[in-house]
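fyi for ur records
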Amino acid sequence: MKQKNAKFTAPMIFPPIFLCLIMLATWVSLVYIETDSKQNIHKSLDTVLKITEEALQLWLDGRLDDLDYVVNDQAIIDLSKTLLARQDSLALSQLRVLMGNQLSKHGDQGFFVIAPNRVSVASMRDANIGTENLINQQRKAYLDRVFEGETLFIPSVSSDVPLMTKSGELRNKQPTIFVAAPIKDERHIIIGALTLRLNPMANFSRITQLGQIGQSGETYAFDKRGTLLTKSRFTEHLRTAGLIGKNELSMLSIRVSDPGGNTLTGFKPTQALQDRPLTLMAQQTIAGNTAAYLESYRDYRGVPVFGAWTWNDHLGMGLTTEIDAKEALQPFVLTRIVILAVLVVVIILMIGLVFIPLWFQEREKRALKQHRDALEQTVHERTQALEEANNALKTLSEVDALTQIANRRLYDQTLVTAIAASKRASQAMSLMIIDIDFFKPFNDNYGHDKGDITLKQVAQIIANSLTRATDLVARYGGEEFVVLMPSTDIAGAQHFAKSIKDNIEQSAIEHQFSSVANFVTASIGVASLTGEALNDIDLFKQADSALYQAKKNGRNRVVVFDGG
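which gave:
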């Protein structure tokens, strides 16, 4: 009898053992899939974050280069010196005209010239003049750095004047951003600061909005106080939840703090905004901890999210890309539900369906991969969009907006490389400087619109006159162009210069107000150096000296630097 019971009991042990093994395998699989999902979520978010940061950096570098060009314009320096010394309505009017032309190129909203005592001495608006500058009121540390010699970006501040919204209405305390640079006199002493008021709703916010992935993903910026510096994707929800006013924008109105609960589900914060702790993301970013964090945390809406973050010292702000945990984990949750359902079936069927869970696990892994692939495809599409934006910004930073030829920045970069190559090859390097004769009377009488058309025509004539891919034609400034000619001696350069002069003459562009002819002409100075004597400063000085001589000798001619 005892032997019979032993034979009966032994097979009964296997189903519980098998069930324990299946449950253990299920738990291990779920832990692995969850961890793998979170790692992939973080990788995707980090990719979007880095691309967005690079795009912002490229945009900012371009704007700072533009500002450096403006702040080194001698006319602007002279007018600023006058206004810093005393109130002068004529100087203010002339400065507004010059700055108005600069502002219109990028759709900027205004400018300030700020005295060392932080008082605005020039602006597009009379109401700003003679008052403490709003940057000093809201971002004093940044303005202090400008007066110490830095050219930098100043994150969002509340505007001191009503600004036009996208709907066309004027509203007070609208967000605004600036780029700022020191104004230096001829002794390189800082005498003031020049700022450009940029439109934060243009490239700055648009670039971060490209970082939106899925239905709830967003990329945004914030400062060390936790203030939101870019537009939130969830502005309407923030208004509904009472986190911002009905007519308020999320930018500058939201502190990236943890409300203590999910406001999407009706949670009402009990703490005042200023008393709430910053979100885990904001605390880690400001503290400089950018290590990967794979768990969810509450964002400024109180919604559980996953995120990747970084602090950019150059921009002076933190950046993060976040997505709702519910959306990000949806593929995993679906997988978990299915796996648990399979486990229930396994428990019911016990031994008869031992291998079914493994089959279902494999099937759901494929489903997870498909969901992950779909998310990666979305990230890829956003990445392409950001890369296209990067390429467009790179083109804007290297091409003159009016003439569509190389600008001074690209010329300066190419000059350094070309000189180094010429020295290595022991070849001559030539440079010509071309100046349109009597262009100011042309603009004064025909108008600036006609003058812009003529600048485009002359730029195209110069470009078409060159036959070698190694030669570079660039707009140096105003009506002045430069042509860089590697591997070209002085005779070859002179030949090219005469060809360009003749082609400009033959274009017969009407100019009844020239003292040389009744059509547009140009004066050209040519210089060439080789070997150890070759350097960018002497090459330009010699070409400029030759240009001066061409003008002195009656214009509409080519003069080669003779060393005299």
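The first strand starts at residue 110 and ends at 114. thats all i got for now
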